[in-house]
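Record 1 of the preview.
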Amino acid sequence: YVYSLRSGDTEKVRESIEILRKETLAIIDEYATLQEKNPNMVEKLTELRPLISEPVDKVDDRVLARYLRIARLKQEIRGG
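->
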């Protein structure tokens, strides 16, 4: 990320974030299906989905920090 800022080429970082976003949405949907007997969990996952659904146009510190948290969420859901 830091090197991409220096060169002005954040496209690879944006592509990586886009992949993470799509994978996380798929995992949330799958996990919500498995948790259907836990309405509180399904509600929380449903609340998260719109926050992750927004496509990434511009990569900056705020977006990177957000997607680092999303990566952690993905890891926690997967049990890692």
